[in-house]
Amino acid sequence: MRRTRIRLSAAFICGAAALFSATAVPTTPAAATEVRWVVNNQAVTSYDIERRAALLRLMRRGGNVNELAAEEMVEQTLRQQEMARLNVPVTDEMVDNAYNNFASSNNMTVAQLDQILAESGVTKQHFKDFIRTQIGWGQVVRARQRSSDSLTEQDVVQRMLQQGGQKPTAMEYTLQRVIFVIPSGQRSALLAKRKREAQSMRDRFQGCENTVEFAKGLVDVTVRDMGRVLGPELPAEWKEQVANTSPGNATPVRETEHGVEFIGVCSARQVSDDHVAKLVFEDQETGDETMEQLSEQIMTELRERSRIIKR
Predict the structure, then answer these.
(1) Residue 36's pLDDT is what?
(2) Contacts of 204 (CB under 8 A, 6+ apart)
(3) Is 173 exposed, middle or buried (0-12, 13-18, 19+ CB in 10 A)?
(4) Which of 47, 176, 201, 242 makes the best surface tag, with the fewest CB within 10 Å?
(5) By the 8 A CB rule, do 170 and 231 touch?
(6) What is the pLDDT of residue 73?
(7) Separation CA 254–CA 98 (nearest Å)
(8) Regarding predicted confidence, which is higher, 144 or 196?
């Protein structure tokens, strides 16, 4: 069976909506569900494969869609089993947030996305299962990378010699995180209101000195001093926004599993030392291509030790 390549990054979940056709592609009624593959005693059914084939059609994927759908569902099952073995945490809130972002990035409401997925035969549940696997698998690959690719001091010296002896620099930020909390179960009712409140506070942000004072008059708003954070240590979802925000200003408002947030950039300066050099060089090794190769390596290992039977 040919291995398929699925992007790991959050950008896929939040940005690949552009691949969706504006019009749902109708599917034929599903036949009786049959077991088509067994992956470590877990069934992959014709129903699962039909849902994935509908998703691939909606995303304008070429080739033999039914064959590709079967390959992806076997691979997704292996990934989910590995996520379960490693106890990778992917909460319903994380999935819902990614689903909602997917809709908004394609200029749709969640209800419109629900309708497209239903009419095309994908179903909301199948797409959410797909998102959950993408989020969790990204965590699996990043955890493997962190455990296996830490550079030694000798590696760092060698890298610097290759670059003419220049020690790399990185930005060091002093940050403040402002969270407009949305209680569990109230996201749909409160999201729009909390976005407006967060945007209003963000528009008035003029530095970190008065943030706590501003937040005192607001309900369920948390201000967290993040202290000094080096650029390579920033979470991927914040890195670009922080880098593009000048000191004394705040990043754009975004939805997260906690509610609605923005990051205040209190100060920024360039620093250079051995620790920075190590972080910068390690960061260079975690690009999309490297992570994709590591993903393929892990999948090869899983296939070699798994029992995969075609029915």
Answers:
(1) 95
(2) 214
(3) buried
(4) 47
(5) yes
(6) 97
(7) 11
(8) 196
Q: What pLDDT band is residue 93 in, cutting at 50, 70 and 90? A: confident
**C-beta of residue 228 within 8 angstroms of C-beta of residue 242:** no
Question: Could you tell me the CA-to-CA distances from 105 to 10, 81, 133, 173 in Å, in that order?
Answer: 13, 30, 20, 29
Task: Say which DSSP state 28 is in.
Answer: P
The letter for the amino acid at 18 is A
Cβ proximity of 262 and 241 under 8 Å: no
Instruction: For residue 4, give Cα distances in angstroms to 70, 95, 177.
Output: 10, 22, 38
Cα–Cα nearest to 178, from 256, 100, 98, 99: 256
Q: Which of 53, 132, 122 minimizes the C-alpha distance to 88?
A: 132
The DSSP code sequence of 111-178 is HHHHHHHHHHT--HHHHHHHHHHHHHHHHHHHHHHHHH-PPPHHHHHHHHHHTTTPPP-EEEEEEEEE
Residues in the chain: 311
Q: Which of 70-79, 188-197, 224-233, 256-265 has the highest mean pLDDT?
A: 70-79
Distance CA 57, CA 35 (A): 22
Q: Model confidence at 234, in pLDDT bands (50, 70, 90)?
A: confident
Compute CA distances 166 → 130, 194, 227, 231, 259, whole Å.
44, 47, 28, 18, 42
State the CB neighbour count (10 A cutoff) for residue 219.
Answer: 9
Is 223 in contact with 213 (CB distance < 8 Å)?
A: no
Q: Which of 20-29, 85-94, 125-134, 158-167 has the lowest mean pLDDT?
A: 20-29
DSSP 106: T
Map residue 12 onto helix, strand or coil. Answer: helix
For residue 119 the two structure tokens come to 């009419």
